[in-house]
Known about the structure:
The protein is of the alpha/beta class and 272 residues long. It has helices at 32-44, 52-64, 71-82, 90-95, 109-120, 139-143, 154-162, 182-200, 216-224, 258-271; strands at 8-13, 15-16, 29-30, 48-49, 98-105, 125-129, 166-169, 206-208, 229-235, 247-251. The strands form two sheets. Strands 1, 4, 5, 6, 7, 8, 9 and 10 form an eight-stranded parallel sheet that branches. A two-stranded parallel ribbon has the order 2-3.
Amino acid sequence: MPYENIKFIILLYHKIGIPPEGAKFPGLFVKEEEFDRQIKYLKRKGYVFLTLSELKEVYDAHYNYSHNYNSDSKAELRNCLVSGFGRVNGPAFKKKRYAAITFDDGSRSVYSKGLKIMKENGIKATIFMVSGLTGGFNDWDIKNGEGGDEMLSLDELKEMMENGMEIGAHTITHPHLTQIPFDAAFNEINGSKKALEEMLGCRINFFAYPYGDYDEKIKSCVEKAGFTGACITETGVVKKGSDFFTLKRVAIRHNTDFFKFKRKIFKVKHFY
Ligand SMILES: [Zn+2]
C-alpha cells in the first residue's frame, strides 16, 4: 500500500512573544525568533503545513479511501494540498511529512507577531478562538491571577482567514467543561461554534477542549454539535486509527529551546 503509517504532527502553541515581567503562565509564550526557527526547521525537513480541515482531507485520502486510490483521488489530494499558501512538489509529497500548527485561545499576539512570520514562511495554522472574548481580554486567565492579554478582534480573525488560516472553536468563556453542568457545557461547545460561524460566515470544523479537559460525555457533545474533530493537550501524533475527537498534539512552550524542539519532534515521530 502506498500510504501506510503516515503520522501527522499537530503542534500546540498559545502566544507569540516574550512573557511580561511577573507573568503567571510564562510557559504559554514562544519567542518570535524561536517560532520562526521551529517553522524553518520543519520546512527544511520537508514537512507540509496543513490546517486541520486540510489534515482531515489528506488523512481521509491516505487512510479512508486508499482502497480505491487512483489518479483522480491523487489529483484531488494534490489540489487540497496546493490550496492557499500550499506549495507541494515531489519531495515533500513523497516524504509524506505533515504538520499542523494550532494556537489555543486566540491571543492577539498570534496576529500582531505570528502572522508576519507565518506569511514569510508561506505556512498556515489553525486558531482556536474563545468566541465570547473576541476583541476583549483573557478573562479566564485574569481570574487565575494572570495579567491582561488582548484577544483577536473580529477584523483580525477575518484577516487571518484571508491569509489561509483556519478558525476553530474553544468554547465561549474557557471553562473546565467537566466541572460545569452538562447543559452549560453543551452551550459552551455548541454556542461557540454557532457564534464563530455567524461572525465569520463559514463553517467551523474543529474544536479544542480548554485545559485539555474532557470526558466521554463532553466528547459526545462535541460530536453532536457537528464538529469534524477536536484537539486535546495530551502528547502524541495523528496516525492510522486515531480518534478525531481526541487529537493529540505536541505542546511547544517558552522553555522549549531549539534542541528540545528537535528532540520532541523526533520522539513523537518515532515513539508515538
Ligand atoms: Zn485554552
